[in-house]
Amino acid sequence: MERGVRNHVPGLTAILTAVSLALVFGAVLGAIPETVLPGASDGVLDAIPHVNAAVSTVAIGTILLGVRSIRRGNVRRHRTLMLTSAGLFAIFLVLYLYRIILQGAAEFPGPESVYQFVYLPTLAVHILLAIVCIPLLYYVLLLAVTRPVSEIYDTRHRSLGRIAAALWLVSFFLGNVVYTLLYVVY
């Protein structure tokens, strides 16, 4: 199984990306009926944005520590931290999609000028980076989990991983800015 995946990382990346984006856009555009999911109380649904903000903040820390670890040559710690970051991202995404499917997107409660000139541009960049990150993350993760460390240096893991980590950090950070505007400031 691992050898099959190892030999088809680009193709598997494309498939996983397509499925992931279909789920995200399906949820955001209301194409996934809420009846396919178990219900939750308003308290649980209201807690999800706050939990996701905490998850995002922890993920920012694990990504930064993962980058620092690999710069110091600690491959094992880097791997653990980056896999933890991917797990945190998965938790974030599942919770986000669950809430979106059941309640829809949150409306911005602040002034129109902040909405147009701060919130929307921040949200747009956050979403764009999240979309761009998905295939990069799948690709570098698949390279990492299908090869021994000695072979990873012969792949694009390092060069694409740097880009993925940087974009991932900015996306998580901007997601927290969006959260702050929606749930703290306004």
Automatic annotation (TrEMBL):
Pfam families referenced in this protein's UniProt entry, alphabetically: DUF420 (PF04238)
GO BP annotations listed: respiratory electron transport chain
Taxonomy, superkingdom: Archaea
InterPro entries: Cyt_c_oxidase_su3_a-hlx (IPR013833), DUF420 (IPR007352)
TM regions (residue ranges): 12-32, 47-67, 79-98, 118-142, 163-185
GO annotations of cellular component type: membrane
UniProt-recorded Gene Ontology molecular function terms: cytochrome-c oxidase activity
Keywords: Membrane, Transmembrane, Transmembrane helix
PANTHER family referenced in this protein's UniProt entry, alphabetically: DUF420 DOMAIN-CONTAINING PROTEIN, HYPOTHETICAL MEMBRANE SPANNING PROTEIN
Entry protein name: Putative membrane protein
